[in-house]
Design goal:
It is built from six helices and no strands. It has about 160 residues and is an all-alpha fold. It starts with a helix and ends with a helix.
Length: about 160
């Protein structure tokens, strides 16, 4: 029996789960601009954080199945698979560096500690509504969507076209 189609199916399921869960965070990033009440911002940020319970296992499935598929068809000698992996790492790194600090600031702006603050950290002082508005008007979400969207298209192109 040829397991390759099943491995690719698992890879695609992982990719869809990852994109679906990440879509929650993308939606939240833009939605918090529309409803700037601190309790609503915090609720949406918590929803975004909850989506990580699907995002990380999906990413693990995507990676494991992709590696197994690479071995199943001996793709490791081709440049496209290495370029796709490098691009995934670059996208993840860029999005982490650009997004994480910003969303920690948003949590702090509404008076809530972030998971990175530690369990015994005191709650930060919330910002004034005007200061919160300035923070939420950031173009950071557009930058993140551009990096993720363009990167996704490039990875899909590499996987489908498999240029030498």
């Amino acid at each position: 029996m040829d397991w390759y189609p099943w491995i690719v199916l698992a890879h695609v399921i992982g990719a869809f789960g990852f994109i679906l869960a990440h879509g929650v965070s993308a939606f939240v990033a833009f939605r918090i601009r529309a409803d700037r009440r601190p309790e609503q911002v915090l609720a949406m940020m918590d929803l975004s954080s909850a989506s990580l319970t699907v995002m990380y296992p999906s990413l693990a499935l995507l990676l494991v199945a992709g590696v197994v598929a690479g071995f199943a068809r001996e793709w490791w000698g081709q440049l496209w698979i290495w370029a796709a992996i490098a691009l995934l790492v670059a996208i993840g790194t860029a999005m982490y560096l650009i997004g994480t600090r910003y969303y920690i600031e948003v949590r702090h702006a509404v008076g809530k500690a972030s998971p990175q603050d530690g369990k015994n950290a005191p709650a930060p002082m919330p910002l004034s509504p005007q200061e919160l508005s300035v923070l939420l008007d950031s173009r950071r979400p557009e930058v993140l969507v551009a990096i993720g969207g363009i990167g996704l298209v490039l990875i899909l192109w590499l996987m489908v076209v498999k240029p030498a």
